[in-house]
């Protein structure tokens, strides 16, 4: 599949250089060479974050300004993560046996080192019960993405999965990088198309062409695979967005540093007061109200994954967001890193 985007075919609108590049004094000029290979400059600017047309947690759409930064062109791959582990001896959370005191009420026979793996059911199931396709599998971790018997053979250039938030942070520190805020991630994913529902424009399948690795068919039991993939795909298998970023939509969800809250802050009407480099709510605001006995904070993840489907999870959009506990890793969640020219100030 070609990796050269046809911007005229994807979206006929022009990008406003004031709104998208230089609003609020954001750094539009590329500040020298990239600090690491395979990073691209995201110019920063003011944009409409969130959406009023989709899921409730994306509301309200509101103006936000972010400063420019460098971002990994692709999600971190298995090959890159393996070099990190070899150099540091890092052990991921999925490889460590959970402690009973951290999970009151947990069944003793479920307290083993493992991770959540998508297992496709044989036929239609109740989609209100995620236990019909998510299984906590012993031995599942980044080296064994589909369970203990699976390997990374042929997956070297696929995104690494089964990484908890702390694992992603550790990798970023090792490389002298950071993880992006939700605002930084969403601005970058939009690729200069302010207000467009998708990272490539207004249509999900322009010209019946796939621009991301998502689910086709009836989730979770029927994947037609018309995009060429049933599981993750090699990074760069689909066209980049307007900033040259690959796989910001689909393939794997990506960690951000923002604590999750089920709605965005209200729109600020005065131009002087548009939030700049927002950092999100407090950790205690992110606890899952459905599990009050477990105080595990949740981060915002972005971008959707290969499991997002029209009939179940239409989160293959830059505005989409979802909560993920920081102690949780899955077979459809990865990350990418950024470098800021200057630190973000709260």
List keywords for this structure.
346 residues; paralog of FGE (formylglycine-generating enzyme); 4-stranded mixed sheet; 5 helices
In short:
The chain has 5 helices and 11 strands.
Please characterize this protein's 3D structure.
Helix content is 12%, strand content 14%. With 346 residues, the protein is an alpha+beta fold. It is globular, with a radius of gyration of 19 Å. The termini are far apart. Mean pLDDT is 90; it is low at 1-26.
- Given helix and strand content, the structural type is alpha+beta
Largest sheet: 4 strands, mixed
Distance between the termini: 42 Å
The percentage helix is: 10-25%
* Integer count of domains: 1
Contiguous uncertain segments of 5+ residues: 1-26
CATH-level-4 superfamily name: paralog of FGE (formylglycine-generating enzyme)
Content of β-strand: 5-15%
Q: How many strands in all?
A: 11
Order of helices and strands: HHEEEEHEEHHEEEEE
> Architecture in CATH?
Alpha-Beta Complex
Query: Residue-averaged pLDDT, rounded?
Result: 90
CATH topology: paralog of FGE (formylglycine-generating enzyme)
Q: Class in CATH?
A: Alpha Beta
Rough shape? globular
How is the topology of this model organized?
Elements: H1 7-10, H2 17-22, E1 39-42, E2 45-49, E3 62-66, E4 69-72, H3 78-88, E5 114-118, E6 134-138, H4 165-174, H5 182-190, E7 253-259, E8 298-302, E9 321-325, E10 333-334, E11 338-339
Parallel strand pairs: 7-10
Antiparallel strand pairs: 1-4, 2-3, 4-11, 5-6, 7-8, 8-9
């Amino acid at each position: 599949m070609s990796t050269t985007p046809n911007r005229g075919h994807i979206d006929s609108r022009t990008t406003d250089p004031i709104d998208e590049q230089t609003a609020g004094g954001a750094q539009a000029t590329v500040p020298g060479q990239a600090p690491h290979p395979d990073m691209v400059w995201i110019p920063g600017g003011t944009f409409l974050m969130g959406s009023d047309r989709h899921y409730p947690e994306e509301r309200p759409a509101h103006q936000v300004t972010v400063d420019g930064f460098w971002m990994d062109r692709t999600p971190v791959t298995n090959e890159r993560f393996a070099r990190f582990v070899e150099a540091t001896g890092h052990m991921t959370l999925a490889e460590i046996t959970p402690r009973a005191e951290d999970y009151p009420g947990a069944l003793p026979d479920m307290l083993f080192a493992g991770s959540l793996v998508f297992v496709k059911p044989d036929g239609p199931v109740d989609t209100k019960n995620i236990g019909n396709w998510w299984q906590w599998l012993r031995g599942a971790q980044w080296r064994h993405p589909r369970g203990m018997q699976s390997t990374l053979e042929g997956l070297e250039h696929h995104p690494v999965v089964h990484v908890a938030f702390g694992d992603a942070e550790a990798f970023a520190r090792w490389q002298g990088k950071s993880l992006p805020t939700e605002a930084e991630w969403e601005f970058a994913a939009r690729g200069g198309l302010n207000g467009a529902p998708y990272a490539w424009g207004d249509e999900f399948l322009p010209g019946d062409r796939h621009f991301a690795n998502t689910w086709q068919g009836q989730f979770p039991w029927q994947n037609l695979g018309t995009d060429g993939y049933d599981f993750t795909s090699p990074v760069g298998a689909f066209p980049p967005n307007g900033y040259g970023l690959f796989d910001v939509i689909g393939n794997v969800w990506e960690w951000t540093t923002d604590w999750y809250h089920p709605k965005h802050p209200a729109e600020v009407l005065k131009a002087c007061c548009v939030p700049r480099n927002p950092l999100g709510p407090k950790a205690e605001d992110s606890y899952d109200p459905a599990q009050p006995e477990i105080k595990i904070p949740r981060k915002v993840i972005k971008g959707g994954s290969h499991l997002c489907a029209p009939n179940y999870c239409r989160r293959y959009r830059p505005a989409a967001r979802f909560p993920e506990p920081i102690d949780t890793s899955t077979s459809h969640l990865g990350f990418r890193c950024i470098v800021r020219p200057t630190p973000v100030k709260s």
